[in-house]
Amino acid sequence: MSNQVTFTLDHNSFIHLEQGTAEGQAVAAILKVAKRGGAHIAVAVSSASEKILGGAYPGDIDHFRFRMNAVGLGEAPLLQTIAKCGLSYWDWGICPTPDQQAREAFIFRTLFPTIAPEWPDFAALNGLDPEDLTTPGAHKWRNPLCDVQAFWAHDDAERDVFVTTDRRFARKLSRSPEFAAAKVRTPTEAAAML
Description:
about 190 residues, Rossmann fold, two-stranded parallel sheet, 5-stranded parallel sheet, alpha/beta, 8 helices
């Protein structure tokens, strides 16, 4: 893997692949190169905590792996994220070091400066039940957290290219000197790198 470009797919890229959109076709092109050994693809486990088509949350890691297999990503490694009670699958989240925790909080503040990075704070500020992460109100915090976790996993693993259709990543991260070297690309842009 030393000379391969390493790509991390976010949840949006995964959905495009499932739906067969133009961006999904670009993800498929990257996957084809990866299967020949010309690139390396990984998926952050936070994608398993995101809503799936139809609006439900996947019940377990096996369901997520089934979806990965269905679109040809069955061999792609999963990048672990920081474990969060009520969000992470058992054995699929890490207990972070203080530096890792601080980095995740910094990424959260960079991407979502107007959202409280901790669930209890967000719940209190918005009159939500801190014990229920499945409500529409909780989704307004949960979805940003999953985005943060995906980029954190990519950053922590020191991978090359973060692949997403969400322009917020490139826009917000490019404003921070801390992320000056971060390569954030759409699937089409990432495929053009190969």
